[in-house]
């Protein structure tokens, strides 16, 4: 099917809000190159379960494209129109199965050596979009608070090597009352700017209820039953005839939150939210390693949350992940497989904190955003903020209240 | 079509060039490398020309490593053997670009054919173009025992020979999949962790393609490698990773068959796909150590010492920390400059030690270079000979 052949009836199976958005812009969609239309529909199809920031971005794309004169739009999207679409992607019903189309399309881009030109076209389009429809400034300067839990230890490991050049290294933190102070700070921010999904919290172990009551939260421990269900599904899929990686990806993409049993937490207002459940499911089904390692879960959840929800406040708490056994240990079968790896987890979390800061810098208001990373085991921290000097070391010990005061 | 970040701005343009520039500057700052520029006007010195009967060992990393974790100042602690032992003896190509598909099997197959192969990375299929093993054996009338591949996963079992007309069956390399041998030698092992070990690859850890090629069988352990199944499994119990097992097998091959063309693919570092940075670092450190071990194996074996050229090269890189479409060290999805730009290290007779070659080359250049070294043509390969190592 070509875009110009689309009718409103083609979107009958789409969720209601997605259907409304697309049909409102149907005349525009009909004029788009097939590849571009398919990619836009793939995003718009999940409109009902998108975060507000994502919905705004989709709305902005439609309004931006509609604002262009036809010749300008054709010119801007010419790179997408020029893509050669080989089988099997060309034979996929891209309206009904946009994700399946995307998987096949991506493979075709690589195998036909079009990936680089496509990348260039997408970059140019995004540049124009960003200039025409910049993301709004945040209601509060954004803050990321990252805690490397007390069990994450590796003697003599030089923490925060990637972050120190960007802020103040605090070699001596007074830990007294540190976590409760951090929780109170995050709660205060959530109260000050009560925006849906504007304040998020991910924990590598069990969530702190005091924080989860105020911030949309998810934890590796609470998702344990969901992870178990997903691993069961994976086993079933792989044991079926014709199973392979693409089959698995397609099958995983079809899993809905409604088909799984979710833990409910009366203290966590976001735990029953379809939007947040869908987000958590995406973290577990699209993130590699998120089902296995708690450090990967926190790092990937943070990455996706910053990219998609663009929160004002992000709290991350890393906990020890399970240890990866050596080959000889697996062969001997004599070692417990569920022991933790405090040293490896520290490295994982240190890198995860760096990525949280990098991803924070991608969002609007980056010049005002701030980041605090605190190792509870080593009583060290790094502070990065708009008024803080770079690549310096704090001369005196600091407690959490003092560090947070410097941050904003 | 998410919006691009504020980070991937002008600062990241021409990143490929900058990657190579940084790598060169890091190494020169470490006082390890000269420049290849003075080389270009000279012919190789005949007095130190390599003896007849040259051999080649190729070591590829089926899981790229980035400069941040290797040649950059903070990364050098992870590669002490490459930096201090091998690099001073090597010619180093700092700007090697891979324009092909960034999946490990298809990329390694491209390295072996000198043509960017385009098949599905997750299907055990034969390359479409003749492999270097076929060129070598057909042109020089070499026996099957003279070309071998030791590879990490079932997906590599067809890499030894292509389905290209005029080549293919009867001309390829023997392929040994150590993890597959391990599974065959311990069929009743019920432990879930063990099953995880035998998962095929880290790019898609839930999938193990069926074997359908002419891979090395368990029964050949004794007849070819002079290794009983019990010895094999007993030794495996002393090793910490699949890559160590691969090097153990390579050592047995060298001792028993002394192949002139030996290709070893390491892949422990590709555990990066799990998102655990510490495990990725461990994989790099292990690969570094194993490369030095392989070089030591070469130098201590009379069949190899003094007439073997060793090439070490990642098949490609990994995503930049700053590309909005990627996820840093974890994947190699974006096709950005960092994921496409890597390096080649060459050691051995005739190689100008300590030379740094800055001009851009392609990973496809390996096959014609091997042809020039061993004395055979590679008519369908698309790369160019790396003259600095001849």
Question: How would you sum up this structure, described in words?
Answer:
The complex is a heterodimer of chains A (408) and B (390). Chain A is of the alpha/beta class and 408 residues long. Chain A is built from 17 helices and ten strands. In chain A, the strands form two sheets. In chain A, strands 5-4-6-1-7-8-2-9 form an eight-stranded mixed sheet, sandwiched between helices. In chain A, helix 13 packs across helix 14 (294-308) and helix 14 (294-308) runs parallel beside helix 16. The radius of gyration of chain A is 23 Å and the shape is globular. The mean pLDDT of chain A is 91. Chain B has one domain (56-360): Alkaline Phosphatase, subunit A, CATH 3.40.720.10. In chain B, strands 1, 2, 3, 4, 5, 6, 7, 8 and 9 form a nine-stranded mixed sheet that branches. The N and C termini of chain B lie far apart (47 Å). Chain B is an alpha/beta fold. Chain B has helices at residues 15-29, 80-86, 104-113, 132-140, 178-185, 192-197, 220-225, 229-236, 242-256, 277-300, 337-340, 366-374, and strands at 55-61, 90-97, 147-150, 174-176, 261-266, 308-314, 341-347, 355-357, 361-362. Classes of the chains: A alpha/beta (408), B alpha/beta (390). Chains A and B meet through helix 3, helix 7, helix 8, helix 12 and helix 14 of A and helix 6, helix 9 and helix 10 of B.
CATH H level, superfamily name of chain B: Alkaline Phosphatase, subunit A
Distance between the termini of chain A: 53 Å
**What kind of assembly state do the chains in view correspond to?**
heterodimer
Query: What is the radius of gyration of chain B computed over CA atoms, rounded to a whole number of angstroms?
Result: 20 Å
List the helices and strands and how they pair.
The complex is a heterodimer of chains A (408) and B (390).
Chain A: H1 16-24, H2 26-30, H3 34-44, H4 52-67, H5 70-76, H6 78-81, H7 98-111, H8 115-132, E1 143-148, E2 168-170, E3 173-174, H9 178-192, E4 199-203, H10 209-212, E5 216-219, H11 224-239, H12 245-253, H13 274-286, H14 294-308, E6 313-318, H15 327-332, H16 342-361, E7 370-375, E8 380-384, E9 392-393, E10 398-399, H17 400-407
Parallel strand pairs in A: 1-6, 1-7, 2-9, 3-10, 4-5, 4-6
Antiparallel strand pairs in A: 2-8, 7-8
Helix pairs in contact in A: 3-7, 11-12, 13-14, 14-16
Chain B: H1 15-29, E1 55-61, H2 80-86, E2 90-97, H3 104-113, H4 132-140, E3 147-150, E4 174-176, H5 178-185, H6 192-197, H7 220-225, H8 229-236, H9 242-256, E5 261-266, H10 277-300, E6 308-314, H11 337-340, E7 341-347, E8 355-357, E9 361-362, H12 366-374
Parallel strand pairs in B: 1-5, 1-6, 2-8, 2-9, 3-4, 3-5
Antiparallel strand pairs in B: 2-7, 6-7
Helix pairs in contact in B: 2-10, 9-10
């Amino acid at each position: 099917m070509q875009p110009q052949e689309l009718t409103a009836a083609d979107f009958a199976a789409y969720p209601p809000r997605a259907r409304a958005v697309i049909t409102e812009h149907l005349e525009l969609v009909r004029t788009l190159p097939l590849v571009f239309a398919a990619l836009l529909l793939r995003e718009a199809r999940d409109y009902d379960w998108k975060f507000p920031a994502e919905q705004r971005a989709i709305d902005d794309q439609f309004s931006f494209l509609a604002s262009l004169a036809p010749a300008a739009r054709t010119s801007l999207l010419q790179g997408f129109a020029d893509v050669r679409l080989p089988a099997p992607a060309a034979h996929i019903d891209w309206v009904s199965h946009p994700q399946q189309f995307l998987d096949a399309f991506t493979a075709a881009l690589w195998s036909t050596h079009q990936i680089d030109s496509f990348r260039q076209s997408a970059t140019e389009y995004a540049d124009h979009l960003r200039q025409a429809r910049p993301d709004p400034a945040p209601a509060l300067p954004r803050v990321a608070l990252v805690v490397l839990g007390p069990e994450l230890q590796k003697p003599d490991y030089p923490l925060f090597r990637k972050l120190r050049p960007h802020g103040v290294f605090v070699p001596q933190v007074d830990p007294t009352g540190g976590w409760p102070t951090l929780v109170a700070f995050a709660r205060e921010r959530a109260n000050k700017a009560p925006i849906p999904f504007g304040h998020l919290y991910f924990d590598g172990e069990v969530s702190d209820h005091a924080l989860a009551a105020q911030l949309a939260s998810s934890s590796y421990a609470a998702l344990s039953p969901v992870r178990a269900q997903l691993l069961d599904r994976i086993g079933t899929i792989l044991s079926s005839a014709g199973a392979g990686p693409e089959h698995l990806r397609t099958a995983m993409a079809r899993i809905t939150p409604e088909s799984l049993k979710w833990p409910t937490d009366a203290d966590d207002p976001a735990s029953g939210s379809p939007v947040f459940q869908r987000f958590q499911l995406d973290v577990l089904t699209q993130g590699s390693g998120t089902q296995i390692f708690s450090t990967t879960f926190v790092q990937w959840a943070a990455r996706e949350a910053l990219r998609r929800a663009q929160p004002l406040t992000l709290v991350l708490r890393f906990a020890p992940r399970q240890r990866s056994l050596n080959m000889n240990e697996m062969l001997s079968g004599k070692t417990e497989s569920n022991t933790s790896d405090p040293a490896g987890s520290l490295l994982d979390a240190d890198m995860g904190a760096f990525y949280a800061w990098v991803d924070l810098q991608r969002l609007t208001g980056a010049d005002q955003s701030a980041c605090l990373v605190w190792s509870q085991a080593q009583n060290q921290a790094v502070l990065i903020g708009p008024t803080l000097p770079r690549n310096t070391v704090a001369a005196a010990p600091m407690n959490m209240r003092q560090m947070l005061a410097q941050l904003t | 079509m998410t919006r691009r970040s504020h980070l991937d701005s002008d600062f990241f343009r021409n990143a490929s060039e900058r990657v190579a520039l940084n790598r060169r500057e890091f190494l020169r700052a470490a006082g390890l490398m000269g420049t290849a520029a003075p080389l270009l006007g000279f012919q190789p010195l005949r007095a130190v020309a390599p003896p007849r009967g040259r051999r080649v060992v190729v070591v590829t990393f089926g899981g790229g490593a980035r400069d941040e974790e290797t040649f950059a100042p903070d990364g050098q602690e992870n590669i002490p053997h490459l930096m201090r032992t091998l690099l001073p003896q090597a010619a180093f190509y700092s700007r090697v670009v891979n324009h092909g598909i960034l999946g490990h099997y298809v990329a390694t197959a491209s390295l072996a054919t000198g043509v960017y192969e385009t098949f599905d990375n997750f299907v055990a299929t034969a390359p479409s173009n003749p492999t270097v093993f076929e060129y070598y054996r057909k042109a020089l009338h070499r026996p099957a025992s003279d070309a071998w591949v030791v590879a990490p996963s079932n997906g590599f079992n067809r890499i030894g020979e292509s389905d290209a007309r005029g080549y293919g069956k009867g001309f390829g390399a023997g392929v040994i999949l150590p993890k597959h041998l391990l599974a065959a030698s311990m069929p009743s092992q019920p432990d879930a962790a063990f099953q995880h070990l035998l998962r095929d690859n880290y790019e898609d850890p839930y999938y193990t393609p069926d074997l359908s090629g002419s891979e090395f069988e368990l029964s050949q352990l004794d007849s070819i490698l002079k290794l009983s199944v019990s010895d094999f499994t007993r030794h495996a119990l002393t090793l910490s990773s699949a890559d160590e097992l691969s090097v153990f097998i390579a050592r047995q091959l060298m001792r028993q068959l002394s192949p002139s063309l030996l290709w070893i693919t390491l892949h422990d570092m590709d555990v990066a796909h799990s998102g655990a940075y510490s495990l990725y670092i461990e994989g790099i450190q292990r690969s570094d150590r194993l490369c030095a071990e392989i070089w030591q194996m070469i130098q201590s074996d009379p069949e190899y010492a003094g007439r073997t050229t060793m090439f070490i090269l990642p098949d490609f890189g990994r995503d930049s920390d700053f590309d909005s479409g990627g996820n840093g060290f974890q994947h190699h999805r974006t096709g950005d400059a960092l994921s496409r730009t890597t390096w080649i290290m060459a050691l051995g007779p005739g190689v100008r030690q300590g030379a740094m070659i800055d001009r851009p080359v392609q990973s496809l250049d390996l096959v014609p270079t091997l042809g020039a070294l061993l004395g055979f043509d590679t008519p369908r390969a698309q790369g160019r000979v790396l003259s600095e190592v001849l």
